[in-house]
Amino acid sequence: MVRVFQLLPWVLCGAILACGHSGDTDKRKAPEQEQGQPAEKEDGGNREAEKGRETLEPTFLEGQDPKPEDKKWVRVEGLSDEFEGSGLDPAKWNPSPEFIYKGQDRGWYGGSRSLFEADNVSVGDGFLRLEGEKFDSPKYSPKDNTDEAPQRRYGGAYVYGKTLSEPGYYIEARMRASKTAMSAAFWLKTETVPCEVNLNQGENLEIDIQECVGVFTGELGDEWTKDDWAVKANWDRIFHYNTHRHNSPCNTIGERQTKGGKMNFEKKNSEEFHVYAAYWHADGGKIDFYIDGRLEKSVVPVIPFKGALRLIMSSNFYDWIEETTAEEMGFNRPLEDRYTKFDWVRVWKLEDL
């Protein structure tokens, strides 16, 4: 009995030390666990912990991937970019709409009051940045009639892929609009070559994966837009997607033929990033539009979209936006607020396993 009491202090001491050691271990683990979490960034929110790493699959929520069991997704590297460098990759992208065909510039330089300029395109902090600005005085585009007064008062940007997108591709981008009246758009279009030699059998086709504005200035009854469609659609907090068949000298259809859809967000397009995507079916007969990995709607265009299209990221001043003050339209904001930002763009195709 005496020996038991003599040993008891040593047992209690060992237990106390063991408990103390266990507590220290837990305290050491906590910071390690915190360090392992993806960092919150001012731009882009909770981005990938290793944004530059190789991404093996497209963005899909569970049960949303249309991939057949005998296929796998493979990145189309010529149209995919994480924008991790210090400048735009000239092997993949053109920062200007200029497009010379047989000595003629067939580029489109923006809406009637807008001008796409290469110096509004930059890469920094892991983003492609498209700057919106209000000019001190109006400018001409390279194709404008200089005998008339210049009308282009707002600077935007237009970046297009040097590799054409094809039917069968899944095309996605993580994007956020600026805090200006400029648009934020991710889209595809028939190349601006004569219709008799284009890859769409003379058709002038367009797929809008997303188009919105950062600030909307119109009001119900506004005389500028002539109707209230844009106001009621809430263009500054919208997922707006379309397929367009435009009139061309080779089809003479008259008015544009459109099929698409829209949905609205609770927050504005300038307040948060979303992943906008489209799966362009291989036969051209259907385009599935996705938001943040979820199928929103399958659209059957008026004719099959069978030919290759140009992939475009742009920021424009739409013709139906009402001009108010620079302050109201966001052009007096700091440069960081005037950027439309693309976190990344990724394009995928299906191949056999």
From TrEMBL:
Keywords tagged on the record: Hydrolase
Ranges of compositional bias, category Basic and acidic residues: 23-32, 39-56
Region (Disordered): 23-71
Keyword rRNA-binding: no
GO biological processes: carbohydrate metabolic process
GO molecular function: hydrolase activity, hydrolyzing O-glycosyl compounds
Family classification: Belongs to the glycosyl hydrolase 16 family.
Record's protein name: Glycosyl hydrolases family 16
